């Protein structure tokens, strides 16, 4: 039963992007086959939750230069056993941005992605089954960088401001500027 909420969210999500359509099927299969899919201890991979964080007026999005992975990406992190994927996404956004007042634009899935994490000193190579939500800042708070990021940067709707060409990040950017 602890997987029913994420399965309901995924079944209701209808991506148009070919990569996301494939990711949805792989993610559903992964969740159905692994009762411990929310646990970081599942060495083949685990569920993660992320956000595309918008400014209060929606004119900017916050991206981070991830310290450990050395890539520009959205804010997010591990579920660590918590099956409420939206709550995890909001918590991670708050922790990584330093902004406390963050609210969902929608409780529906904004994007999904499955990405490979290379082996490091603490864990073997594995996959992150990442569910993303569109959220926004609900007050006039300032970003506070933490140890998980080299940099946090607000970007506008000009594609040249996006500091990465990573397909899954570009896909979220495109959804944002196209109002999807």
Describe this protein's structure.
- The structure is a single chain.
- This protein has helices at 4-12, 18-33, 85-97, 167-177, and strands at residues 45-54, 61-66, 71-73, 75-78, 102-104, 111-117, 126-137, 149-155.
- It has 180 residues and is an alpha+beta fold.
- A hairpin with an 8-residue loop joins strand 6 and strand 7.
- The radius of gyration is 15 Å and the shape is globular.
**Cα distance spanning the termini:** 31 Å
Main sheet? 8 strands, mixed
Strand content: 25-35%
Put simply, the count of helices is 4
The share of residues in helices is 25-40%
Low-confidence sequence ranges? none
What is the number of strand segments? Answer: 8
Backbone structural class: alpha+beta
**Helix-strand pattern, N to C?**
HHEEEEHEEEEH
Oligomer description: single chain
Rg from alpha-carbon coordinates: 15 Å
Characterize the overall form: globular
**Overall average pLDDT:** 94
Quick structural summary:
Helices cover 27% and strands 29% of the residues.
Topology:
Blueprint: H1 4-12, H2 18-33, E1 45-54, E2 61-66, E3 71-73, E4 75-78, H3 85-97, E5 102-104, E6 111-117, E7 126-137, E8 149-155, H4 167-177
Parallel strand pairs: 1-7
Antiparallel strand pairs: 1-2, 1-4, 2-3, 2-8, 5-7, 6-7
Question: Notable features of this structure?
Answer:
single chain; 180 residues; alpha+beta; 4 helices; 8-stranded mixed β-sheet
């Amino acid at each position: 039963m602890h997987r029913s909420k994420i399965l309901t969210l995924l079944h209701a999500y209808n991506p148009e992007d070919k990569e996301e359509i494939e990711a949805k099927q792989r993610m559903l299969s992964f969740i159905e086959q692994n009762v411990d899919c929310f646990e970081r201890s599942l060495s083949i991979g685990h569920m993660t939750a992320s956000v595309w964080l918008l400014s209060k007026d929606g004119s900017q999005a916050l991206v981070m230069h991830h310290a450990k992975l050395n890539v520009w990406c959205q804010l997010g992190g591990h579920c660590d056993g918590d099956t409420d994927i939206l709550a995890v996404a909001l918590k991670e956004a708050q922790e990584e941005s330093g902004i406390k007042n963050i609210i969902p634009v929608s409780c529906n899935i904004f994007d999904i992605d499955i990405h490979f994490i290379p082996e490091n000193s603490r864990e073997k190579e594995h996959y992150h089954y990442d569910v993303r939500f569109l959220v926004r800042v609900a007050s006039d708070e300032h970003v506070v960088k933490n140890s998980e990021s080299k940099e946090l940067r607000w970007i506008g709707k000009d594609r040249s401001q996006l500091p990465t060409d990573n397909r899954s990040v570009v896909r979220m950017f495109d959804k944002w500027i196209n109002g999807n």
